[in-house]
Amino acid sequence: MPAFSLKKPRKSCDDRNCPFHGALKVRGRILEGTVIGAKMDKSVIVKRNYQFYVPKFKRYERRHGHIPAHNPPCLSAKEGDVVKVAECRPISKTVSFVVIEKLEEEKSGGKS
């Protein structure tokens, strides 16, 4: 269970890399972003937008980064969801973050 206060998901899972139902400990940074890819098994790609200061022009520019994160089955984030990810130990070569909360569901509906 994480050291910070979060609501435990309603669903349960038997994933050992789940911070709620497994043995994965969360530490370090906590970031927010949008899921842009959910094609891997139990992993998602989270896009994070941020501003970077350019001293030469004394202005900020918009940048973004892609963060691969573990997606526990009890949360099962999909593309378009706004999620909160937390840093953890390395789970694979590229994955060092885990999804800990879904902030917004994807708004389904067509254009009118």
Topology:
Elements: E1 26-40, E2 43-54, E3 59-70, E4 82-88, E5 97-104
Parallel strand pairs: 3-5
Antiparallel strand pairs: 1-2, 1-4, 2-3, 4-5
What's the quick description here?
With 112 residues, the chain is mainly beta. The protein is 0% helix and 48% strand.
Report on this model:
The protein has strands at 26-40, 43-54, 59-70, 82-88, 97-104. 0% of the residues lie in helices and 48% in strands. A hairpin with a 2-residue loop joins β1 and β2. The radius of gyration is 16 Å and the shape is globular. The model has no long low-confidence stretch (mean pLDDT 90). It contains no helices and 5 strands. It has a domain at 31-104: OB fold (Dihydrolipoamide Acetyltransferase, E2P) (Beta Barrel). The termini are far apart. The chain is mainly β and 112 residues long. It has a 5-stranded mixed β-barrel with strand order 1-2-3-5-4.
Write out key terms for the chains shown:
112 residues; mainly beta; OB fold (Dihydrolipoamide Acetyltransferase, E2P); 5-stranded mixed β-barrel; 5 strands; 0% helix; globular
Helix segment tally: 0
Largest sheet: 5 strands, mixed, barrel
> How would you describe the shape?
globular
Beta-strand level of the residues, as a percent range? over 45%
CATH architecture of the domain at 31-104: Beta Barrel
The average pLDDT score comes to 90
Order of neighbouring strands in the sheet with most strands: 1-2-3-5-4
- Unreliable spans: none
| Quantity of strands, as a count | 5
Helical/strand content category? mainly beta
Order of helices and strands: EEEEE
User: What would the CATH topology of the domain at 31-104 be?
Assistant: OB fold (Dihydrolipoamide Acetyltransferase, E2P)
Distance between termini? Answer: 44 Å
Assembly category: single chain
